[in-house]
Amino acid sequence: MSSTYVIGLIGSVLVLAGIVEMLRRRQLSEKYAVLWLVVGLLLLVFTIFPGTLSSIAALIGVAIPTNLLFFVGLIFLTGVGLHLSWELSRLEDETRKLAEDLAILRLDVEQQRQDRIEP
Length: 119
What we know:
It is a single chain. By secondary structure, this protein is an all-alpha fold. The protein has two domains: 1-49; 64-119. It has four helices and no strands. It has helices spanning 3-24, 30-48, 51-60, 65-117. Helix 1 (3-24) runs antiparallel to helix 2 and helix 3 (51-60) packs across helix 4. It holds the Pfam family DUF2304.
């Protein structure tokens, strides 16, 4: 076993352990958990069986397996960034609507107080 293999294996196990620990502490939402667990498991599989990435790269026609890994990672991170931007936009809209509703409710409460004071 080469030192690169051992380092990769330890790194993969640490990534998976980190994901599981974040889930256990409820620091990672369940809707993202499956995605990150799949990524962690794929990382572990590619570490344990390094020929798998080479086989997939040869099957697709990519000359260097590392290029395939970087390309898939780029696509994945682009998708994650796009999804997070969508979530942020949705939450900003929801926050704006809640702030408007709160302002209306405060105005109603203030008017009711005024009505009680001035009969």
